Amino acid sequence: MNTSAIAVSGLRKAYGDKVVLDGIDFDVPAGSVYSLLGPNGAGKTTTVNILATLMTADAGLVQVAGHDVVTGTKGVRSAIGVTGQFAAVDELLSGRENLQMMADLKRVRSGDKVISGLLERFDLVESAQKLVSTYSGGMRRKLDLAMTLVGNPEIIFLDEPTTGLDPRSRRTMWQIVRDLVADGTTIFLTTQYLDEADELADRIAVLSDGRIAAEGTSDELKRLIPGGHVRLRFTDPAAYRHAASALREEAAKDDETLSLRIPSDGTQRELRSILDWLDSVDIEADELTVHTPDLDDVFLSLTERTTGTTGTTVSHSNSQEAIAK
Ligand SMILES: Nc1ncnc2c1ncn2[C@@H]1O[C@H](COP(=O)(O)OP(=O)(O)OP(=O)(O)O)[C@@H](O)[C@H]1O
To answer: Please, which residues bridge with residue 204 across strands?
Structure first.
């Protein structure tokens, strides 16, 4: 599908003199899942708020469902559903009443049927008559998403949808997202769980220092990291210090976990050379693990400056598909 559900260019936003979005561009194809990642405070919620017309940008062009967020606010609002940190759930109503309120607000036909279907889909039938104030965090999240689905919005913003959910509820939520996409819905997802983005997103953008640091499919982003690493862990601090001092320049040290990370592509030849080197400097680690790149590595590398984490440096030149900006 080639049409854009969301098109953003030159988006800027500052709070006072604090620049949060410093000119970001991205495009979300209709019927896909697009995930925005970034460290705490990177501006993910700010982006969602602007796209969902809950906040105005300082500059830039933003089109959602073909409507400009400034001049076509009404059109945008009728095409989207928003769930997450600004949930519309009313604690003093029951689950069913909340859904009813949403159905009335959106003037949904056959509201009762739609509501019963949603309660069933989200496994909320038994608690439908109970006040939301008695719901667990997970139940509230499910109700929040169920309310978002009333009226079948074509684009859904999911802001950290599975935070606080148990593993089973998380998987239920993932399946719901997949079903929605299979029906043609576009999902804009922010999450702090990289495995969630890996699992669900067609494309991922990493926000860092007010800019999109890299953008692509999960595989494309992983290819930005030159190989994985071998992790050596020690239990004896003296052995760790000895190994750290003998370490090659490009390896990273973690004093807290007494572990060393040596860049490696994980091939037999590389592993042999690392083992030979360990023998030659008389180092015996208590644990040796081979690690191939995952989204955690990508995230740590791309957001290194913001989070202050020591990670592998990303090579920006070795991928044709992913764009590291
Ligand atoms: N209304 C506001 N006024 C002033 N500063 C704000 C306001 N809203 C957000 N900020 C600041 O802007 C930055 C981005 O916030 P935002 O909530 O968009 O980040 P985020 O990526 O969603 O973070 P998190 O992962 O912690 O939810 C933060 O430094 C935050 O403190």
So the answer is: 35, 216
Candidates 36, 44, 85: which one to mutate for ligand 1, based on the most atoms within 8 Å of Cβ?
44
The answer to whether the predicted template modeling score (pTM) of the entire model surpasses 0.90 is: no
3-class state of residue 308 by DSSP:
coil
4-222 classified as CATH 3.40.50.300: yes
Classified as helix, coil or strand, 214 is strand
Domain ranges of the chain: 4-222, 225-324
**How many other β-carbons are positioned within 10 Å of the β-carbon of residue 254?**
15
Atom 13 (ligand 1): residue with closest C-alpha?
41
d(CA 48, CA 55): 9
Residue 25 makes CB contacts below 8 A (sequence gap 6+) with: 8, 9, 10, 11, 212
**Strands (E) located in 30-73:** 33-37, 59-64, 67-68
Tens of pLDDT, residue by residue over 263-317, are 887 778 888 988 898 888 888 899 999 887 778 878 888 887 544 333 333 333 3
Residue % of the chain over a pLDDT of 70: 90
Amino acid at 213: A
